[in-house]
Every structure is written in C-alpha cells, then in structure tokens.
Amino acid sequence: MREDWNNVPVSEDTRPRRNRRGRGGQRRDDARRAGAPGQASHRPQVSRRALEAAAAKRAAVEVPTIAYPEQLPVSARRDEIAAAIRDHQVVIVAGETGSGKTTQLPKICLELGRGRAGQIGHTQPRRIAARSVADRIAEELGTELGGLVGYQVRFTDQSSDSTLVKVMTDGILLAQIQRDPDLLAYDTLIIDEAHERSLNIDFLLGYLTNLLPRRPDLKVIITSATIDSERFARHFAAGGPLPAREPVMDDADDADAGEDRERDPREAPVVEVTGRTFPVEILYRPLEGATKGDEKDLVTGIVDACDELMTWGDGDILVFLSGEREIRDAADGLEAHLGDRARNPRHPRRVEILPLYSRLSAADQHRVFERHTSRRIVLATNVAETSLTVPGIHYVVDPGTARISRYSKATKVQRLPIEPISQASARQRSGRAGRLADGIAIRLYSEEDFDARPPFTEPEILRTSLASVLLQMISVGVVEGPDDMARFPFVEPPDTRAIRDGVQLLSELGAISVREGRTSLTETGRKLARLPIDPRQARMIVEGARHGVAREVAVIAAALSIQDPRERPTEKREEADLLHRRFADPSSDLLSYLNLWEHVRERQHALSGNQFRRLCKSEYLNFLRVREWQDLVQQLRDAAKAIDIEMAYRKPSPVDDAEGTGALRHVWDDDGIHRSILAGLLSQVGAQDVLQLKASSFSHLKGEARAKEMRKARKRASNEFIGARGIRFAINPGSPLSKKPPEFVMAAELVETSRLWARDVARIDPAWAEELAGDLAKRTYSEPHWSSKRGAAMATEKVLLYGVPIVADRPVLWAKVNSEDARDLFIRHALVQGEWTTHHGFWRRNQRVLEEAAEVEARSRTRGVIADEETLFAFYDARLPESIVSARHFDRWWQGARREDPELLTLTLDELVPEHAAVDPSQFPERWPQLDLELPLTYQFEPGTAADGVTVHIPVGVLSRVVEAGFDWLVPGMLPELVTATVRALPKPVRRLLVPAPDAARDIVAWLAAHVPAWVDVARAGDMAEPFREAFTRAVRDLRDVEIPEDAWDGLDERLPGHLRMTFRVVEPGGRGQRILDESHDLVHLQRRLAPQAEAAVRTAVQRAADAATRGKGRRDDAPAASPHPVASAPGGTPASSARPASAAVAEVDPLTAWPALDALPDEVEGTVHGVVARGYPAIVEERKDGVRAALRVLADATERDAAHARGVRRLLLAELALPVKRVTTRWTPAESLALGASPYRSTEALVDDLQLAAVTSLAPEAGQVRDRVAYEALRTQVKDRLEDAVLDVARQCAAALTAARELDVAVRGATSLALLATLQELREQSAALVGDGFVRTTPADRLPHLARYLKAGAHRLEKAQADPQKDAQLAWQIAQVTEAYDTVRAAHAKGRMAPETAAALDGVRWMIEELRVSLFAQRLGTDGPVSEQRIRKALAAIG
User: Where is the segment annotated Disordered (predicted)?
Assistant: First the structure.
C-alpha cells in the first residue's frame, strides 16, 4: 500500500485494510517517521543555513558518466525530455509500464545539473517500489546505494549528505512539508505513477500547484502510465489550472483522435513515451451467452477461457479476480476440471494453480516469481494490474470486475463493493499479456460493455473519507477550514459532501470546533494531529491516557493501522486458526491483539533473532509485519511524549488456563481499554436487532433438515446489528463474538463485501457511548407522566447515537426537559388529584374538606355545584412559586412558607361549595337505622358504575342481622326521583293512567308524607314496616283510583335506574381500615355467599370475648381504634359496649361427645371487634366435614339456630347412645336383610347410622327446645330406653319401602311400550327421589312409614297406564301443573330469607303432592287424609 504523510491524507478507518495490500504490499506510513507534527506554528522549521550547508556538500559530489539502456523507449526520447525539463517548470511524461521512465528520468535530471541546490526527490506510491527503484538507479550509475542515490521509507532512511537522488514514498515528502513548507531541500521533484491518483498524490499535486509560483527554481516532473496526461497538463498550465476536458481514449479505431484536439499553449508540455510491449489480441467471451439460457457462472467462464488459451500455445495464464473468496472458488473449479494435471506435480502436462493476493504470506507470494518449467495459472487480485510484474505471462483472463474501496456518503462507511473496472484498468490488465511476446487477453464481457465503461478509475479523493486530510491540512496551516479545502487546487476537487463528512468525523472525535463560522483545532485535535496515526486511532490513544491505559490502546491502535500480522496460508488455514485462537478473548477481538503482543514480546526476549523468526513462521505470524507493528508502537510512544502521554510498561497477569486449552490470555483493564477505543469509534457502534423467525419460512422442510435450517437461521438472526445512520451489519464469522453476539458492540472496521461485515469487534456498555458522545447523542422524550412514587413528573428518555438506540427506555425527571410542564403535572396530580404521599397537615385538612364537598355533590346528584379541578389548579398555581416542580421541591419550599402563612394553601368548604348548592342533611342522612343497628351510608355520583347512588356499609359480623325490608325507600332526598322513576317503570296499561308522570309523582310524594310514618321510623322498623310498593299502591289507589295489579311489579327493580337501588357493601373492619368483601344490590345474595365469612366473624368476636372473660379482664374489645364507619347502637337500644354475661361463658367445642360444660346454653352472645358489635347464637350442631359429629358452635343467623340445634342435639344423643352395627343388623329378618342390603347406601355402617338417627328423631321431636343440661339428660334417658325398638321399627319401614321400590323397578324394566316412555321416566325419577342415597336421614319421621305406599302407587299406575295410556297422561298433566306451581312458590321464597315456618309449610305441600299421586293413580291404597289439587293450591296461596 501507499504511505501517509504523518497521517495525511488517507485515514485507515475509511478504507478496507485487511486482506488487501493495495498495489504493492506495503503501507503508506513512512511520513510518520519524519517527526511528530502539530499545529504549523509549533513545528520546527528547516533553517536556511542547514540547507545551504547541505547544498555545498552536494555540489562537491562527482557524478559518474551516465549511460542509457538503448532497449528502453525513454532512452530514445531523452533529449526531448531534457529540453522540456530545461525550458519548463512542469513536464508531464506519459508512458506505459516498462518504458523506463521511472529509472531514467532521475539520470536525465542529473545530466541537466539538477540535484545540487537541492536534492532530486523521486516519489513512489509504495515502499517496495521505492527500495527497488533506488537500487536499480544506483546499479545503473555504478554507485553504492545510500551515496549518490538513496532512499527513505518508513523506519528506514538510507541516504547521506552526498545523496543527489532521493527516492522516497510520497508520504515521506508530505511529512517533510510540515518542516519545510516551501520544499527548499529539493530543486527537482519527480512524482511517479501519478495516474494512480491516490490521496497522497492528489494532495502533493495540489500543494505543488500553490508552491510553484513561490519556487520558480523548482522543477516538477509528473509521470503517468495512461494517456490521462492531458488532465495533468491543464492543471499545471502556466498562469494556473485550466478547466479539465473529457479525455480521449486510445482505441484502435481512433488512435489519432488525441492529435486532432487543439492544444492550449498554456498547458504544461507532455512527452509521450511508447511502452516496451508486444501486440495483444483481445477476445470477448461474455458470460451472458449469445442466446437466453446460455448464461455461465464466473468459474465456468474462467475454466472455458483457460481451456481456450491453452490451445493457443505454451505460456502462463494470469486470471484477475476481485477477492480471496473468488480466487478460492476459481482454484477449486480449475482443479476439479483439470484433475490429475493440477494435483500431480509429475504429470507431463502439469498445470500449477497459484493464488496471488495481499493477505498471502510472503513465502506464498514469492512462489509466483520463482522459476518454473510447467504451465502456471496465476489467480490474482488487481495487485497484479500495475504494481507487480508476474513473470512468464502470455495470456490474461479478465472478468472485468474488482473490489474498489468506496466511501458511502449515506452510511459513512468505507465499502469494498465489486464493481466493473474502468477502460484504463482493462487495458492495464490486457497489457500484462504483451510484456514478453505477442499475447492474448480474453475479456469475460462484451465489447459493448467495455465501450460503456468509464475511461478511468475514479480518483481516491472522490471515494474516500477526508477527515485525516482535513485534520492535517488545518494542522499544517495549508487551510483554515472546510471552505478553504473546497478551494484547494486539487486535480479533481472532492465533493463538498465528502468534506462535510470529514468535518463531521473530526467533530465526533472532538478534534475541531466551529465558532462564528471559523474552524479551529481543539486541544484534543492538536494532540491527534501530532500522533502519526489515523485520527480515529489517535483519539483512542488520547482517551487511553485519561484511563491510564495509553500503552495498551497504542498497541491496539497500531495493530489496526497495519496489516494483520497473523497469516492464514490456504493449505494450512485450520492449523493457523487453531494457533491464533490461543490469543482470542470471548468478549473482544481487540484484546486478542494485546494477548498476541505480550506473547510476541516474551518470546522475542527469550529467543535469538533467528529463533524468533522461526517461531513466527511456525506460529503463522508474519515477521515483517510484527516488526512494523513494534516500530509503529515505538513511534507512537515517542510522539506521545511530546503531548505528555506516558506509556509505561506494566506486566499483565496471565489468565489461568484451567481447561488446558493452551490459551495465552492476560488480565487487562477491559473497561478502560474499550472505553478508550470507543472514543474513536462512536459512529461504528451497533445495537443487536434480533429478528423474529417465521415458521412459514421453513414449511418446505421436514424433520432434521428443518431443525438444522432453523438453528442456522436463529444464529443469523442473533448476529444482526443496527449501526449508525440506519446501516445493518453482522459480526465477522471468524470472531468469537459471532457465536454469541452481545447486545451492543463497536467495530474497528466495517467493510462491505457480500454484505456489511464488522471486523475487530468488542462488547461495550452503551453508557460509555453516551458519556463520550456528548452533544452527538440525540435525546428524545416521550410519555411524560406523573409518578406517585417519585413525587415528580417523569418521562421516558431515548438516546440515539447516529440513529443507534444506546438507551431505550430510561425514566428521567421531566423537569429537566420541560420544567413548566413538570410544574403543571405536579400541581394537577399531586395537589389536585392527590397522587402523592405526604405528611403535610394542610393536605389532610384539604382532603377532608374535599370529601365533604364531594358528599354534597353526590347527594344532590348535580355536577358542577362544587369547584372543579381547574379551579383547584388555579388555587394552587397562584400560590406556588415557578420553581416548584416536584414533591421534593415543594417540601423544601413549604418548610419556610408555612411559617409566614400557615393557611396559605388551606381550602374551606365555603370556597368549594356555593351557598345555593348546599343540601339538607336530614334529606341525605349519614346512617341507616335498622332495629338496634346504625349502618353508615355513603353517596356516589358516578353514573354507569355499580355503586352509583346510595351505599350502605355492612360489617360482615352483623351481615346476618340485616334485613332487606325498608331499603326500598332509599333516603328522603331521593324519594321524589324514586317515585317518578317508579311511575315511568310501570307497565304501559298502568302508566298511561298516571300521566303526566311528574305531576302524578309530586302528588304521590305529598300523599306519602301525610300517610306514612317518618323515614327514620320506617327504616328502623325493618321488616315490620310497610314496603314502598304497598304504600305506593295505596297512594295511587287513593289519588287516582287506579289499582296496580301484583304482576305489574314483576321485574320493575331492573327497569329502575341503577342509582335508585340501594347498594349493599359488606366490609371487614380492621385495625388499618376496612376491606371490602363484596357489594351488590341483592342483600340476600350477599348473605348467602358470605355466610361462612359472617359466621367466622361472629365466632372470632365471641371467642375473644370468652377468652377475655376467662382471663378475668371482662373486656371484649381488643381494638381501641374505631372503625372508619362504626356501627352504632340505636338510641334507646342496647349500647354496643354493654356486656352480656352469657357471651363470656361460651366457647366453641369440636367435637362434642357430651353436654358442654355450661349448665345452659344462652340464646345469644355478643362480642366486639374493631368497634363492631357481633351477635351470635350458640347451638349444638351436626357437622359432616371429616366425619359425622356434634359440635358446639356460635351461629351468625338466629333463624337457623333452632333447626340446627335440633339436629345437633339428636346427633349428640346418638353419639352417646348409638348401638353397635351388628346388634342392629342381627335383628333383621332375612327378607329385611335382603331388602336393606340392596339400599342405595354406600355401606351398611352408613345405613345403620341413618336408621338410628331417624329413630332418635322420632323419639325426640322437640330436641330443638333442649338448651340446658337437666332437660338434655332427661331426654337422653327417655331415648336410651326406647332406642333399640325404635331403630327396628324404622328398619322395617325402610325395608318395606325398598321392597316396593325394587318391585316398581322390575315393572318399569318389563314395560316395552313406546307410548309409556314419559310415564316410565317419571316413575324412575319418583323412585330415585323417594329412596335415593341418604333417604332415611332426609325423609321426615312421620313420612317414612308412607314411602312404601307411594312406591306401590307407582306400580299400580304403571298397570293402569299400560291399559289406558291416554288417561294416564291426563292425570300426569294434573300432577305436573301442581308441581310447577309448587316449584314456582319455592323458587320465589328461595330468593329471599325463608322463615322456618315457610320451609315447613313447603315441605308439607311436597308430601301432599305425593298423596295426590296416590289419590289419582292408586286410590284403593288410600291417602293420609283428604287431598286434592284445590287443597294444594290453597296451601300454596296461604304460603304466599
């Protein structure tokens, strides 16, 4: 590669550097050795005295006789060239490679006497060329190298005071400009290979354009291998550059076209020198084919071309390819095609296939130049186009493409796409076939394609980053800013956008600042300019000094600036990778350089020079590149001292290789190193973008193939990153990080080949990028919201660095972004809406006032009668300073403000509620009185919600004591609305008699006020008061003489607006407030659903009271804090705190095997928990959970106590008096045993238990009245004496019933008529209902003897039905009608709280229906008393 001046003008980060050696294999960094540059004013200048002394020494040098090789074309034109040089300041010499211009022009200048006042400077683009050219010139002059002829390249200066001709890289000359701006050390400059148009050459030409008017004594000779010489001639025209004209190509058809063009006399003279070449025949073999379907791939085209060329004669073939991968593919294709000819070295028609590209090891490259006897096919990149002359070439295959370094102005990334080459490059390639003899070149594209291509390759300055150029031009003082650079006399000025990109990169690195339109170097920029390395790498080193890792970063930066010292020979790739893997770090490719550096350093100290060379070769390390790496690090250390950056060596600790993998890793300051490197790579970070895979993409695959492809796809998806400015890239597969990609990475190099790849990658913390980016990071804020936890307005911050989201969703204080909006949010959410946690007294007082005001609004059910949120906002806004934006700010301010005015922020009810909006408290009471309870009321004005309207709060401990009656009246203030809504909800036939509804409602309200007791009395009376419906009906009858039928009320509640139905909210009081258990408009539903919780609450209260009594404290309230809505005693009733002596003596017992320790059970007991009086009702109950047993419990519902107590006493009697099972079963006859053995019971024990329980029930019908020990013991004695016989009687009754059921079942199974299907189904259901599992326990004692008769009646019915099915159907319809009426009444009562008397009456009707069945279907069996359908309906009507 070419070399830089200091680091002007090409920055390494802007061009692909790995796997490519450009056009020579050396780098363009010689200028860096020339000194550590800084700002122009700080650089040491060459003194005129020293220049004069050097000139005097050169004047004394004797030049030997100069001879010119006659075979070189330039020799024939030397007089013409000498005359042009003598007569003109600038001369253009144009000639093809091989014409001799490079070696003979310095000799012509010596013959003209040049080189005395100043040296003859001769620049070459590459180091290898500089050394070889100097050696050749010295050989032709017969002098030692370093004497008359010397050379200087990076790290090597082989010249002396007597040197007249100094061959050097163009970078060396550029570096000397910094100390010698007028180039006074030279009187002649030869700029060779100007046609390559590298950045160095273009800058030199531009600089010389400005310098020549100041140095009329300076001679400049520019050589070019192409006929684009006219562009140079016009650029160096007398009086200044002339506008460029379109060049004329030297085609066969228009060879004289250039001569026909009129020449401007101001142009610099051009001397054309014909190259030493032979004719080359051009053959076009396009891959597209003549017809559709004849297309070839590239490898096939190369194979066919080589076959064709080998038929023309002997000679080697040179094939140009665009990259290493294409070379490998072509080699594989040729080897497969040639077979044994390519594989067997002894084959008589041997064909040797050799690759040639810059990344090849030196040994592999030298193989191309070795002598050989067999035919060779050399597969080369464009390195063989002009820079290297491959011997033995007679034939060329040109696919017409090459990888051309190109900087993308859109993505700011140096790309290396495959592009069609220019016509000039195509000629250079084909010309390689005519160096030895007549040749043939096959182009794998059409002639039309060739004609359509651009004449010349675009100059590098038009396709690369200009950051380094701009930095050094500003530093040297050539330009003062991007505007000056745009006016700089380049041969082809760069695009202004490229200049702008360079400015942007320098701004990213913090190297320049722009103030008032002037660009100047920052302190960081001055340091970057003085480090002999690309600006990105220089920025890394400067940042490394801040973190104390400057030396480590310098090692990495130097490695990034040279070719990779690790080699991968084609045939030893796996072995090389294995050795190189020892240095790999799983989180960073960059640290592998440090591990390699430390290994090389240790081995170099331990081994001799030759041993170290052999080690490098055995470990696939390029010795020359290692030395170059070490030299550059030393150069950086020397330059860093001038800017006060120390790079002291600190020996790192090795990482323990516990797994024995041979890893040679060390412990480094990873974070410090990576943070420093990141400073130079801010625009080369990436965030992982994991793509979602679609199963449909793999639907065409099956089994293991599908799974394998999905695994590959997942791996590819995870290795996808979003980079700067929307680019997407993936980590190079050779990197350890590609196996498990991190979330964020930085890449030292982004190169586009088959796709955009990231090389030299490391994991980073995005927080580092945010810190380093400064103003480059773009912050966006979204979703400003109030945070109660923080007491401040928050927002979500997203930080983008060149479009890469380095921070996704970070919560930040909104006040830092928009303090005014944050203040508004604080006032609105904290002070107005109460979404904060505070201890301030004014706030608690204001909340109480607001609650009172809200109650006024809810009771009046009118919006806007109190101050709205905007009024409250204005109240606080007027009193708070502008600086109050959060709770923390408020607390600090209020601490002082309240001392001056404690009432500054206090609200009053008068301010919130206008006088006309006040409501009468008697119309909207705060408590609901019922019997001895006082239940809290609250009001909600929330239309559409379940709790809209009035809500009564019922502590769960008194839930069972509350009756639904009375709540249908609501509260006095809502009576007019309730009456109006009721009128409108009535059925139309009734409603039309009560129009207009408002007038009718007004009259009804007045009537109710006059004829119904006061609201408080109605509410307190509970179920003893007249329901609202009945009072309403009476009022309508009296006022309008309208009778409202009973069915008019069906579903009316559902037609009323929700707020006109009382909401019952059941709460569980606690020490810290109340917990809502449930709420509904249906009180009975709540009582049933929450019965377990209600009973538990009562038990807890009574048990605590009992415990307190036992401890002798006599205190039953364990919580001094009152409930937020305490249940108070009614005036005149029993105080909630009054003690009932019985309550302290009852403690639950489970299980109970004898009468409890109490002499008598109290009818009720009380306990108080959290201020709520819970009343319980002690009873002995039967429990069946985990076995059947008796227990002493405190029940919550008084209506359930007597029935439950009766069952419990009977169970307790049975627990004491039960007979053994065998004693019972041994008294059964065989027939009874057979019948009872077939019962639906799961076991004999269960059957016997129920038989004994039924016997006890029959012997103790009044068990529910036994509540003391004496009565119980008397009953126990009575039952004990008669139990055994009673059990036998019950068993016989059950056996008779089971026998009848079996006979009925046999008859049903025997019936086959389809006309009797309904009858048979009804009989099955009847039998199952009468003698199902547990029937002995569930059948009343007085009904048990009748079961057999009911079942026999079923058998009789079946007999008759078989004879007359129609009559049976008629009778069955009568039974169905009665049963339906019974079910309707029972369902109606089931919705509410069913009284014991009602339940008993309904059970009586149920057995009356069974008697009706006997009467209709088996009258001869007789009934238990008179029965008929009319009697049953009368009984149902009596129940209601």
Answer: 1-50, 239-267, 1095-1145
C-alpha to C-alpha distance for 955 and 1096, rounded to whole angstroms: 12
Distance of CA 380 to the CA centre of its chain: 47
Q: Across the chain, what does the average pLDDT equal?
A: 83
What sign does the CA torsion over 1102, 1103, 1109, 1112 have?
Answer: negative
Length of the chain: 1440
- Round to whole Å and give the CA distance between 426 and 441: 10
Residue 1120 — very low, low, confident or very high, per pLDDT cuts 50/70/90? very low
What is the rounded distance in angstroms from the CA atom of residue 307 to the CA atom of residue 349? 13
Q: Is the peptide bond before 9 cis (omega within 30 degrees of 0)?
A: yes
pLDDT band for position 1298 (50/70/90)? very high
Of 15, 21, 19, the C-alpha closest to 2 is 21
Kindly report the backbone phi and psi dihedral angles of residue 507, in degrees, each rounded to the nearest multiple of 5, phi listed first: -65, -40
In contact, 240 and 63? CB cutoff 8 Å: no
DSSP 692-705: PP-GGGGTT--HHH
Q: Using only the alpha carbons of the chain, give its radius of gyration.
A: 55
> Which residues lie below 8 Å from residue 1319, measured CB to CB, with a gap of 6+?
1357, 1358, 1361, 1365, 1368, 1369, 1372
Q: Which residue blocks in 112-244 are alpha helix, DSSP H?
A: 127-141, 170-179, 199-211, 229-235
Q: Please, which residues have CB within 8 angstroms of residue 946's CB and are 6 or more apart in sequence?
A: 1058, 1063, 1079
- Look at residue 1391 and tell me whether its pLDDT is greater than 80: no
583 Cβ contact list (under 8 Å, min separation 6): 592, 593, 595, 596, 599, 663, 664, 665
Supply the pLDDT for residue 1117.
42
159 residue type, one letter: S
pLDDT over 70 (residue 594): yes
Q: Are strands 1149-1152 and 1128-1129 parallel, antiparallel or unpaired?
A: unpaired
Which of 256-270, 275-289, 990-1004 is most confident?
990-1004
Average pLDDT of 133-139? 91
Q: Regarding beta strands 270-273 and 90-95, do their DSSP bridges make them parallel or antiparallel, or are they unpaired?
A: parallel
d(CA 1342, CA 1351): 16
pLDDT digits (tens, 9 = 90+) for 339-395: 999 999 889 999 999 998 766 765 777 788 788 889 999 998 876 665 556 788 999
Task: Identify the pLDDT of residue 530.
Answer: 84
The pair of structure tokens assigned to 494 is: 């760069």
Domain extents in the chain: 20-35+58-273, 280-460, 544-682, 779-814, 838-881+903-917, 927-1057, 1309-1439
Contact 1413, 1353 (CB under 8 A): yes
Burial of 1030 (0-12, 13-18, 19+ CB in 10 A): exposed
pLDDT at 1128: 47
Cα-based angle 708, 709, 714 (whole degrees, multiple of 5): 100
Angstrom distance (rounded) from CA 512 to CA 83 = 48
Residues 640, 541 contacting (CB under 8 angstroms): yes
- Span 628-653, pLDDT tens digits: 888 889 888 988 988 889 898 888 98
In whole angstroms, what is the distance from residue 668 CA to residue 549 CA? Answer: 9
One-letter amino acid for residue 407 of the chain: Y
Domain range 20-35+58-273, its CATH number among 3.40.640.10, 2.60.40.10, 2.40.128.130, 3.40.50.300: 3.40.50.300
Task: Output the six-digit token pair for 1017.
Answer: 């009395």
Average pLDDT over residues 746-762: 86
At 588, give phi and psi (nearest 5°).
-160, 125
- Write out pLDDT tens, residues 1256-1280: 988 988 888 888 988 988 998 998 8
pLDDT, tens digit (0-9, with 9 covering 90-100), for 853-884: 777 777 776 665 566 788 889 889 999 999 99
Q: Class assignment of domain 280-460?
A: alpha beta
